């Protein structure tokens, strides 16, 4: 029996951020939709009824969209609590949800995604008012704590070339509120643009923008796996969109060609077979892209190992300098 410890269930196909390097940002292909409450309930029934998840599994109620935009968020939370399944939210903190005991009943973590710690950084990426985001984060933390939340708050700080000097400020803010801080490489998170970059088919204007914002040295050194021996960890999780479609992985667009089946109608073994045997995944693994995408959290590992962010910043600088300077 196939069982999954992690499931990403996108309750919102809509995002209000304007990230220039994300599928759901500046170059979004479609507006998407909010998941219907009845579809959400049916998906949970299938996951639990087929024993694809249990109480040790965790459902991330997000992927490409902003979950707190959902107009019936409270109803969705009521449904998932009925199944007693643990869940996580990842948010850009532009919206303050209604937080009560039901909201935090099975909630294990709230992740705040941040593109820096200044208005200039927010102008370049999310497009929100920075001070409003800080107030919203504090309100969400205070409201959740006031109703007995015992889970984890975590800031996922996306490190760009232009915001490294803001890490220490974010660290101080997170400590004041009792929030964990994890550092992640900001990546080119748009499937078509990513492959255009790798295939040397990207426009000059976009290439220039990327080179000024992102750390792309890992992309330059992709390790091809012509034998296809790398086992992608995406096979061990499920990514489900707001229409109950199971995607090949959590990185691909919601286009039909990247759908392996529908969790409400199709056999999970057949879905898994399609996920493991298709041209998209074969190419991704053979070109080394799968390894790159699934190891893009190196900063998070470093952040847990080194508690002193200023020291970490120096270590990152030395690493980057060593890669860029001639021998």
Structure description:
The chain has 327 residues and is α/β, with parallel strands linked by helices. The chain has a single domain (6-324), classed as Alpha-Beta Barrel (TIM Barrel), CATH 3.20.20.70. The chain has 13 helices and nine strands. It has helices spanning 37-49, 73-82, 119-124, 130-146, 167-177, 191-198, 204-213, 217-220, 268-276, 279-286, 289-294, 298-305, 309-324; strands spanning 6-9, 58-60, 87-91, 107-114, 152-159, 180-185, 237-240, 245-247, 259-262. The chain has a seven-stranded parallel β-sheet. The chain has a two-stranded antiparallel sheet with strand order 8-9. Helix 5 (167-177) links the parallel strand 5 (152-159) and strand 6 (180-185). The chain is globular, with a radius of gyration of 20 Å. The model is unreliable at 297-311 and 316-327 (pLDDT under 50).
């Amino acid at each position: 029996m196939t069982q999954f410890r992690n499931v990403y269930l996108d309750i919102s196909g809509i995002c209000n951020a304007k990230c220039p390097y994300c599928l759901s940002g500046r170059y979004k292909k479609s507006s998407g939709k909010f998941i219907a409450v009845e579809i959400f309930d049916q998906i949970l029934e299938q996951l639990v009824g087929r024993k694809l998840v249990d109480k040790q599994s965790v459902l991330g109620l997000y992927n490409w969209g902003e979950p707190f935009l959902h107009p019936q968020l409270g109803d969705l939370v009521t449904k998932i609590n009925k199944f007693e399944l643990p869940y996580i939210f990842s948010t850009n903190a532009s919206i303050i949800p209604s937080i009560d005991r039901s909201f935090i009943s099975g909630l294990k973590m709230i992740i705040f995604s941040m593109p820096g710690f200044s208005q200039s950084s927010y102008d370049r990426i999310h497009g929100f008012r920075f001070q409003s985001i800080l107030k919203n984060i504090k309100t969400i933390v205070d409201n959740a704590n006031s109703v007995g939340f015992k889970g984890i708050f975590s800031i996922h700080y996306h490190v760009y070339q232009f915001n490294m000097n803001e890490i220490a400020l974010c660290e101080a803010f997170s400590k004041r509120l009792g929030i964990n801080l994890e550092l992640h490489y900001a990546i080119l998170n748009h499937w078509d643009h990513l492959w255009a970059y790798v295939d040397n088919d990207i426009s000059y204007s976009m290439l220039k923008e990327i080179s000024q914002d992102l750390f792309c040295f890992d992309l330059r050194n992709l390790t091809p796996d012509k034998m296809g021996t790398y086992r992608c960890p995406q096979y061990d999780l499920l990514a489900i969109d707001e229409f109950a479609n199971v995607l090949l992985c959590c990185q691909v667009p919601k286009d039909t060609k990247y759908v392996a089946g529908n969790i409400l109608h199709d056999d999970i073994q057949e879905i898994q077979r399609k996920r493991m045997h298709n041209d998209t995944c074969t190419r991704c693994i053979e070109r080394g892209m799968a390894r790159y995408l699934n190891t893009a959290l190196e900063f998070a590992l470093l952040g847990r190992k080194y508690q002193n962010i200023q020291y970490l910043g120096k270590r990152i600088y030395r690493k980057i300098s060593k890669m860029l300077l001639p021998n």
